What we know:
Strand content: 25-35%
Order of helices and strands: HEEHHEEEEEEEEEEEHEHEEHEEH
Number of helices: 7
Largest sheet: 6 strands, antiparallel
Number of domains: 2
Distance between the termini: 45 Å
Shape: elongated
Amino acid sequence: MLSKRKNTMFSSVTAGLKGALNKRFNTWLARRIPQHSQQVINHRNIFIIPTRFGAGLMIFMLLLFLLGTNYQNNVIILISYLLVSFFIVVLHHSFFNLSGLKFQATSSLQGFVDAQLYFPLVVTSNKARFNISFSFAQAPAKLDQKIDNSLSDNKQIESQTFTSQFDQVKLIELTAGENNIRIPYRVCKRGEYPLGRVLIISEFGFGLFRTWTRLDFAQQVTAYPKPIANLWTDKQQSVAGEEAENNVESYQDSYQPGQDEFHQLQHYQLGEPLSRVAWKHVARGQGWLTKQYQQALSGKLELDFEHLPSGTLEQRLSWLSYAIKDCSDKQIAFSLKLPNQMVEYDHSSQHTLKCLSALARY
């Protein structure tokens, strides 16, 4: 019992210390590398440390030097000097493999919770670069699909090899010029929040050094609630103060004769107005035909947060998210009523995004 308390106390102290260190590091990083939509990698924002293999080589060089001086063996000392020279040359190669890269963020991200999104990024290089990986500083989430050459919009890098490991995109070779890449991003929670920093890592140069940086492109994530089907096929539930049976009927596009748009040609029936006769077809000897018109009667639906059945906040927002998506797919005019906002009837794509954004911010 006592040991469990000690372990719990130790874990809490460790977690608190780790959180404080991370907070101080992020504060320092924000001052060191400010957020901006355009970034350039240089000596101010590059960090470089030896890998395990590089640290092992450093220890080996030190032991080799001590062995040579102890036995006064010039050959061993010369070999240690050569290895140190090689180590320093690789250090510079690793640094210049990232230095000089230019980045430009083109847009923010919008999507549903648990969706796999891709952050577009324009990378400009004055020379070929090698072995560079891009990822977000977030919990790894396995991709739903493999990263392939479709991640690139530029023909210059169609032949490049892309591999994926969790939420990471690795470029075996980045050609000179302007390249368009897309970095996987897993949406984990609802709301509007900063996109976060992009982690750029390279171990080019025999794997002796890890060169990395974290860049903040000052972009936002708008995460809509995850659509969950419910209510809309249940005749006993109410969405906007009306029975769901009527709501389901209003989901279906129905048509009635009108003057809105041309529908089809039909054979002329005695008594029909001559204004609807297709005289061009009559002149061509194709018989007497009349033009039939119709207009779409898309039902209107009021989506009211207060009329939803009991459930958690996220469940109710997910139901509304599904209804909005369903109405948009079926071109049904709808309105959205939240406790703090009212969006009037419409069925345009801009209206759909406005309603989904309102759910994300609620």
